[in-house]
Structure formats: structure tokens, C-alpha cells
């Protein structure tokens, strides 16, 4: 795997093994269309997916309103004061995201959609080779991401979902719930879980 920058310099919530899996799966769908991620934060997953897209000359759509998830808000467990815009009283990870994408020389391949997942999906029509869901972790947000985007995945395409915790003691259940829904739908084949990254392939026919 070739990464254009020191990935540890990018803030984020992705294990290197999960990043490598994203990269490899993204390469594997090179003939199936663009990739889209929901939840870019400061661009860690974006760099892995973007590097694979650059190598195969495809586009990565990076959806994030950059206002943070529940756990990033002021006073919450994963709040980062460096990403807080005091002037407007909101989180803003977009500047850090742009810095990472530019440093990694991925601007020709990454299209940021600075909007909520629902708004970005409103008029979406383009079939996708891969969707990576790593946005809000409320059940409502996870269900919405799943319903908004999973139908755009072409046959043979990849659906990857982050923060899969089968045991509720290890973490929130919303991503696990949509991962199960995808499996139970019968439309996806289970390609396994790497750490907390669940990977599924859309079946043919
Ligand atoms: N993939 C990132 C981590 C994402 S953290 C990494 O590799 O480090 C989750 C991100 O989802 C946050 O940046 C937050 O702003 C975004 N998010 C949460 N709910 C969202 C929604 N409804 N629409 C768009 N983005 C959302
Ligand atoms: Mg995550």
C-alpha cells in the first residue's frame, strides 16, 4: 500500500489495519464506479480511500458536514478543542480535512461534499462501486445513512461499515444494527470484519 503522507499526522478514528482494508477493497472495485464515504472528519479514511482512487483514476466523494458527531461536541468525550470554531460556536473539521487532502496530493481525486448525509443524498443518482459508512452513530443517523446510500452500490460493489461492536459493552450498537440489516437483507455477502470494520459485497442478480 502506498500512502502519500505520514498517516499518523492526520487526526482520526481508524486503525491502520482498517485503513489498509479500506484501501484494498477500494482498489478491488476499480472497474465498478466511484467510491463515497460518509464521515471524513480530518481525512484519515479519506487518505486511504483517496490513495486507492488516485491509483485507479477514480473519484472519492467525501460526505461530511464537518460539524462533528454527538461525541465530538463541546463537553463530550471525543471533543477536540483544536477543531472548535469559537466564533460560531460549532465544530469545524473542514480546514484540517482540506489540509490532509492537499498534503496527500489528492485534490484531483477527492470531491468534498460539505453537507449532511441526507442533504448530499437528496438528488444523488450516480451508481457507486463502494460506500463507506462512518458518520453519526445514533440509530437514526446510521439507519438514514444505510437507507440513503446502500441502494446505489452496484452488483459486486462494496459496503464497508465502521465501529461494529457485536458486544454492547464494547461500543454503541447503531453501526452493528445496520451491518446486520445489510446481511439479513440477503443482498450482501459477508466479507468479514477487520477490527471494527465490517465489509460486505453486494451480490449479483
Ligand atoms: N472516517 C473518519 C472518522 C469519522 S468521525 C476517520 O477516518 O477518522 C464521524 C464524522 O461523521 C464526523 O466528522 C461528523 O461530522 C460526521 N457526521 C456525523 N453525522 C453526519 C451526518 N448526518 N452527515 C454528514 N456527516 C456526519
Ligand atoms: Mg468510526
What would your notes on this structure say?
With 205 residues, this protein is of the alpha/beta class. It has a single domain (15-129, 141-185), classed as Rossmann fold. 30% of the residues lie in helices and 21% in strands. The protein contains six helices and nine strands. The chain has helices at residues 16-28, 44-55, 94-103, 117-121, 139-149, 174-184; strands spanning 35-38, 60-63, 84-85, 90-91, 110-113, 128-133, 153-161, 188-194, 197-202. The strands form two sheets. The chain has a seven-stranded mixed beta sheet, sandwiched between helices. Helix 1 runs parallel beside helix 2 and helix 5 (139-149) runs parallel beside helix 6 (174-184). The mean pLDDT is 97. S-adenosyl-L-homocysteine is lined by residues 12-14, 38-41, 44-45, 63-69, 93, 116-117, 134-136, 141.
Shape: globular
Largest sheet: 7 strands, mixed
Bound molecules: S-adenosyl-L-homocysteine, magnesium ion
Q: How many domains make up the 3D coordinates?
A: 1
Helix content: 25-40%
What's the tally of helices? 6
- Report how far apart the termini are: 32 Å
C-alpha-based Rg, rounded: 16 Å
Uncertain spans = none
Strand percentage: 15-25%
Mean pLDDT: 97
The number of strands is 9
Alpha-beta content class: alpha/beta
Q: Find the CATH topology.
A: Rossmann fold
**SSE order:** HEHEEEHEHEHEHEE
Quick synopsis:
This protein is α/β, with parallel strands linked by helices. It has six helices and nine strands; from the N terminus they run H-E-H-E-E-E-H-E-H-E-H-E-H-E-E.
Amino acid at each position: 500500500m502506498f500512502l502519500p503522507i505520514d498517516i499518523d499526522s492526520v487526526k482520526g478514528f481508524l486503525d491502520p489495519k482498517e485503513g489498509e482494508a479500506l484501501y484494498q477493497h477500494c482498489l478491488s472495485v476499480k472497474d465498478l464506479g466511484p467510491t463515497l464515504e460518509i464521515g471524513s472528519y480530518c481525512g484519515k479514511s479519506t487518505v486511504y480511500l483517496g490513495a486507492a482512487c488516485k491509483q485507479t483514476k477514480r473519484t472519492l466523494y467525501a460526505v461530511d458536514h464537518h460539524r462533528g458527531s454527538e461525541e465530538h461536541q463541546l463537553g463530550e468525550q471525543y471533543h477536540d478543542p483544536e477543531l472548535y470554531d469559537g466564533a460560531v460556536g460549532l465544530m469545524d473539521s473542514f480546514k484540517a480535512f482540506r489540509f490532509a487532502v492537499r498534503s496527500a496530493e489528492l485534490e484531483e481525486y477527492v470531491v468534498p461534499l460539505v453537507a449532511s448525509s441526507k442533504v448530499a443524498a437528496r438528488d444523488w443518482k450516480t451508481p457507486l462501486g463502494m460506500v463507506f459508512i462512518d458518520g453519526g452513530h445514533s440509530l437514526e443517523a446510521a439507519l438514514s445513512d444505510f437507507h440513503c446510500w446502500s441502494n446505489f452500490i452496484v452488483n459486486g460493489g462494496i459496503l464497508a461499515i465502521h465501529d461494529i461492536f457485536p458486544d454492547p459493552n464494547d461500543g454503541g450498537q447503531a453501526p452493528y444494527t445496520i451491518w446486520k440489516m445489510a446481511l439479513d437483507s440477503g443482498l450482501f455477502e459477508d466479507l468479514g470484519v477487520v477490527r471494527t470494520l465490517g465489509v460486505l459485497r453486494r451480490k449479483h442478480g
